[in-house]
Each structure stands twice: as C-alpha cells, then as structure tokens.
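Lab notebook, bench 4. Still working through the backlog of constructs that have no structural model yet. Next entry is a single chain of 188 residues. Request: give me the structure tokens for it.
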Amino acid sequence: MNVTKDEAQLSLETIERIQRHTRRVLAHSGAPFYLIIWGVIWLFGYLGSQFLDEHTAGMAWMTLDVIGVVASVFVGWWMSRQMRRPGRDARIGLFWLTWLVYGVLIVWLTGVYADLSLLGLFLAVFAMFGYVVMGLWLWRPLLWVGVGITILAIAAYLLLPNFLDLAMAILGGGTLIVSGLYIYRNWR
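Model written out:
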C-alpha cells in the first residue's frame, strides 16, 4: 500500500489532534488535582518526619492523610459531576481502597512499622506502586512519575539515610506537585 505525502501529513495531523484532545481530557479529569493534593501531603508529611519528634510527626501524618483522602474524595465527586465514565470511577476508587487495605496488612504483617525510616521508604514505594498500576491501566505519565519517584526514594534511602525524609519531601512531594501543575497548566 502506497501512502501519498498528503495522506501521511493528514494522518500525522489527526494523531496530533487526538493527542491534544487526550491531554485536555486528562487535564480536566482531576488527575492534576490528585497529584497536587498528594504532593502537598508528602511535602509537609515528610518535612514533619525530618524535623519533628516521632509522636508529633505521626500525628501530622495522620491529619495530613485524612485531609488528603477527604480532598481526593471531594475531587472525585466533583469531577464525576463534570464528566461521566460509567464504571471507571468506581473501579478506580475500589482499586485505591484495596491498595490501602493491602498496604496496612503488609505493614502489620512484616513489622516494618518498627523502623520509621524503612516505614517511610515502604510507604513511598508502595504509593508509587499504585501510581505505576494507574499508569499501566489508564494514563502513561503516572507510570513514569511512579517509577521515577521509586528510584529517587531508593537512592535517597541508600545514599542519604539521615536525610531520607527531607529528600522525599522535596523530590517525592515536589515531583508530584510539579507534575500536577504542569499538566494543569500545559494540557488544558
């Protein structure tokens, strides 16, 4: 089959138009808001872990996690009113609920909570596992955010163990925030 130069150009323009449309849909789907919300949670949570005593940092994380869940549920509810995707919203919510239950079980069964540094690393890597799955399932950029932050977290744990929480605040939280802002600003 021979394709003319005009047909090839038309096909490329169609692909570019579909890519722009897909990016706009994703930017309007709430994805940037989730990234920003959880980036801010990570930023303040890990800063608290680095600079506050253990008990205060734990209380800060619990408060921040509750705020993050409430904000995420609100964004999900708000976005579901904007656009309807039958069945997808429920499956995503059920995935994250299942992910949370399994995370709690793994932490409890392994006793990783006894070492706060290791617990912080586990939670970061496990959270990024969720992002990687979402990236494979729904939206490729989440895959790269998840893989990138996982690599940064492990590198910080191995190379800067005394500053792991600070590195996670800046690199992990910062990457999530910047990714969300980039998508929100440039893909609309």
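Notes after review: The first helix runs from residue 5 to 27. The mean pLDDT is 84. Flag for follow-up if needed.
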